[in-house]
Amino acid sequence: MTEPNIRQKATLWLATVFVLGAALGGVLGYAFAHRSYAAEPSVMTAEARRAQKREQLKRDVGLTPDQQKQVAAILDQAQVEYKVVHDVMEPQIDAIRQKNRDKIRALMTPEQKPKLEEFLRKLDDERKRNSQ
Q1: Cα–Cα distance list, 53 to 47, 62, 68 (Å)
Q2: Pair 54, 71: CB distance under 8 Å
Q3: How high is the pLDDT of residue 28?
Q4: What is the mean pLDDT of each run of 10 residues along the chain (132 residues)?
Q5: How many CA atoms does the CB half-sphere of 127 hold within 13 Å?
Q6: How close are the terminal C-alpha atoms of the chain, in Å?
Q7: Is pTM beyond 0.70 here?
Q8: CA–CA distance, 103 with 106 (Å, rounded to integer)
């Protein structure tokens, strides 16, 4: 009667599969979380993004060298115009942002205020990174 019966063998196999599944799930979950979400996003400047889009336009549309020069001149001029609009609008946008943040701050408890400020700091940092 020392030989394990079928029920004991099945229980042992089930426990083994469960433990191995949990271990594999833990390892894969850890790897996925630390490589996908926790990884620093690639920081690409606005100029690098524009260059990448220009290259994609050239490649996807099949621009000739002469067209590339003309398109580059048009896009450079557009960038100047965008900057003018941005410079005019940014103070107005900042004023609206500040006014509404003040309204939200007024709703917070003393315990929530430091958390809100940290949240807003991260939001501002992200906006600065994306505008470069």
Answers
A1: 10, 13, 12
A2: yes
A3: 83
A4: 75 88 84 62 76 92 93 94 92 94 95 94 88 66
A5: 10
A6: 76
A7: no
A8: 5
Q: From CA 51, how far away is CA 76, in angstroms rounded?
A: 11
d(CA 26, CA 33): 10
- Confidence at residue 2, expressed as pLDDT on a 0 to 100 scale: 57
pLDDT at 43: 67
**What is the per-residue pLDDT for 37?**
52
Structure tokens given for 17: 């599969």
Nearest partner of 71 among 84, 86, 56, 49, judged by Cα: 56
* Distance (Å, whole) CA 15 – CA 8: 11
Write the DSSP symbol of residue 40: P
Q: What is the per-residue pLDDT for 91?
A: 93
CA distance 95 to 78: 26
d(C-alpha 123, C-alpha 119), whole Å: 6
Q: What is the DSSP string of 53-110?
A: HHHHHHHHHT--HHHHHHHHHHHHHHHHHHHHHHHHHHHHHHHHHHHHHHHHHHHS-T
